[in-house]
């Protein structure tokens, strides 16, 4: 049986501003730094067997992964395929447009996704391909990624309709939320989903 942890990065200023596709090199803000330390302590307490930590190439994911890796005494490996969805012409628009302007959220062929950017299905496929490499060795992989990318790949792995799951927010992750997946004979199931119990209640967190 394979075991996989998926983690959304800690908070940044663009999360607070609620804007899409903000700078890929956004650093963590002070709340995000505290969140990263909290999720790192959570993983340190799990006693994982031979943990291996992976991160999206974007700074916010790498900083979160570095906190976890430091707590576990292992290095971070950058995994390009788990980067955030490319928002195309929607870069800089508010999160709210995903609800108020959802009729515009289509590619030319009608599939759900960002005009000039990526579709949910494309993100899910590249993410799943990237995950294939993390199971080539022994140990327990911990992958730090992003909200939309996690929603897309979880719909694929758990066999949900990606557009319906997106619309319902079924796989929405707050900052540093943790999902634990188990796989047996190629079938994935969620042991826990978008769990943020490790975060102490601090005003403004989870944005």
Structure explained in plain terms:
- The structure is a single chain.
- With 207 residues, the protein is α/β, with parallel strands linked by helices.
- It has one domain (2-7, 12-143, 156-195): Phosphoglycerate mutase-like (Rossmann fold, 3-Layer(aba) Sandwich).
- The protein is 35% helix and 18% strand.
- It has seven helices and six strands.
- It has helices at 13-17, 30-46, 59-72, 97-100, 120-134, 147-157, 162-168, and strands at residues 2-8, 51-55, 76-78, 140-145, 178-184, 187-195.
- Strands 3-2-4-1-5-6 form a six-stranded mixed beta sheet.
- Helix 5 (120-134) crosses helix 6 (147-157).
- The longest helix has 17 residues, at 30-46.
- The radius of gyration is 16 Å and the shape is globular.
- The mean pLDDT is 92.
